[in-house]
Model the fold of this input.
Amino acid sequence: MALYFDADYRIIQLSVAVYFAATAILQLVIGPLSDKYGRRPVLMWGVGLFLLATLGCIFAPNATIFLLFRMMQAIVSVTMVISRAVVRDMYMDDQAASMIGYVTMGMAIAPMLGPAIGGFLDEWLGWQASFWTLFLLGVLCIWLIQADLGETAVASDRSLIQQFREYPELFRSPRFWGYAAAAALSSGAFFAYLGGAPFVGTELFGLSSSQLGIFFGAPALGYFFGNFLSGRFSIRFGINQMVLWGCGVNAAGLMILLLIFLYGQGNVYIFFGFMTFVGIGNGMTLPNATAGMLSVRPHLAGTAAGLGGSLMIGGGAALSALAGILLAPETGAMPLLWLMFTTAALGLAAIQFVHWRERQLMR
Done:
């Protein structure tokens, strides 16, 4: 794409960061809109606009226009926000965490297969082929919503302004912030990986597009397994314990990987292989932390999903961009590994705060 648009590699790499940044902002609006007007119509409009933005990316005449439409593609985040709210409409607390785990286990298939498919499409048909694939998947998504998804929420009788005014109710909840921070920081390690791993794979390890696509899906493989564990054990052990274990797996795997590279023993297989622990940890953390966020104020499930998702994606956008800035051929992979480990460790601290807060409330 950099060659196609005659643009600097770092400019094109911003397509990840601007997408996440726009996603973070949009989720603040999507949640209240779905609480006000219902889940189904907001989904239909969002995916429809995503299709238009995808066509804009395909036919963009230069990098600036491409990045503009790439940012507009973030409207598809309606599916992330509202899918969680739909589950919370139908199930309560630990059971909701279990169901979100199974749902996101299915969602993990896309990032598991997507990079490999995208790499081959890029080599065989050019970068536009990936966006045509996204367009077709968007059409399939609209058909599925139309054919199968009924409305799960009762439309609110409050005005949209009143919906937004309820944000402070979430702001005043320490447990909401604890769950949101655990989710944002744990996933922050993964977002930093998204921003830095392509550089590490291509510039440091010399991988081709198709090879990078195969290696790049390592966290998604772990994420699939981690979500299975959430679906299987969240009801038995509770959401707080599952988040604690997930954050611990994430931080421990990255600490070991960091030590391996510090001692000069790292290679492409070790780097990407250990990223499966990031996926496992996030698969255990995110469904349960999300269920925790939505359970703090159940009548604001859509708003909580939007705000929590905004914090997670917004932080991810910043970390993704920071990872790209920090990395250079002379630095090796170390800046990325330090960034990932630090955010994972802070996520572990956040869920420990939630445990402490709940003990305080029980006294």
Notes: The chain has 16 helices and no strands. The chain has a mean pLDDT of 83. Residues 174-204 form the longest helix (31 residues). Residues 243 and 285 are 4 Å apart (CA to CA).
